[in-house]
């Protein structure tokens, strides 16, 4: 006996209402300013036809302040899963056209159910954030909903990759779910993220600030460091998420998507021999080195606008996915400061959680000196970097390009911090401090009495570099694996990566270490 026609018509009507969200007019208004609808974002993210929605018919149960009898399609959030390049991904998309995408109890339960699905099935989670925040009419029920979301963000941390795409407002407590995830992508226009907005700041402090100043994407990407990737629009943000997922494993029990088909190519690259400036004090753009080392010269840089004295990102070397950490001498001479230590430490911990080998390129003159750095806690922040490298059990490969002085030499993954291979170029200077500083300290009296101070200084600096800062001194002590030509670097790394992919390292049993936060 066929299903009665009226039941099928009722199902169709309910589906159409849910799919319409806040209505055609609201959707058209968003499109007019360059925003995609909540469902359009999901369609753009997934392979065509693979998204399966869950909870389309969920409705709120609130009765206060005009919500009784008010329909909010899908309760303001679309949840489900699909495939991206054959990899299953769970995703949620808040619908600003439906009650401003505000979060109530049912809205939160849909998100939590999706997060638990992602955890059980070991698949990444992508969240499109576009919400007016807590649904005020639901009061403490909305706060409870946020609490459940945050709790499950933490449960998922280190188990599955979590990516937030902030494409609209993300205010108050709503900002903490993205902050608890692994990566945040934010659009330059229309998106804002803050705990207290301009109106609250004006009321409490009397200071007038603009929305972009307190919560804009440029600010978060370049100053606060909250945002990892800047996007021009919704479509660009989605492409970044897809690129990022192409480097990540589905969960912490799997390896990243290496491409290990065929033999590795072990060829010299003579161009690398020509990249180092003759003058050791001359800045060098380490991106030029990275481009020669990674497959097709392609790296997905993370946090590109923040702490520019260090570079982190994902790439492949002869098919092996790696997390790259590199000092950038063209900014602050590559010195480590508070922000650089935080940026690198968090990236290293992510790579370790998701079985991604680490490749570190070293050209560091030390920690950035200054009263502000000391008062800001450079000791504590620098210790995060030491902690992150020492705690990591993934393959760790280090290449010392030029300077590697004092504590910063250790902080950039020396052998003593657990590096499996440490290669040095002939231009490497490994020492307690730079040659000029050491000579000024050791020969202060002699230099003061010298007839030609500049000539004597140059002579002593050259001697110090040759005797105490030479990579061969470290090699003779067994502190580095080998001194290699720059031209040999890519092949040396490729070979070492293949040899260490099956690395296993046991650590003392404990609940967790106490990272110096």
Please outline the helices and strands:
Blueprint: H1 5-20, H2 24-32, H3 38-45, E1 52-54, E2 77-84, E3 87-94, H4 105-121, E4 125-131, H5 140-156, E5 162-171, H6 176-179, E6 183-187, E7 192-194, H7 198-205, H8 211-215, H9 217-224, E8 229-231, H10 234-245, H11 286-293, E9 299-302, E10 310-317, E11 320-327, H12 338-353, E12 358-364, H13 371-376, H14 378-391, E13 396-405, H15 406-411, E14 421-424, E15 429-431, H16 435-442, H17 444-449, H18 453-468, H19 471-476, E16 482-483, H20 489-500
Parallel strand pairs: 3-4, 4-5, 5-6, 5-7, 6-8, 11-12, 12-13, 13-14, 13-15, 14-16
Antiparallel strand pairs: 1-2, 2-3, 9-10, 10-11
Helix pairs in contact: 4-5, 12-14, 16-18
- Which term fits the overall shape? elongated
Q: Name the poorly predicted regions.
A: none
Distance between the termini: 66 Å
The CATH class of the largest domain: Alpha Beta
What's the helix count? 20
Based on the coordinates given, report the CATH architecture of the largest domain.
Alpha-Beta Complex
Mean pLDDT reading: 92
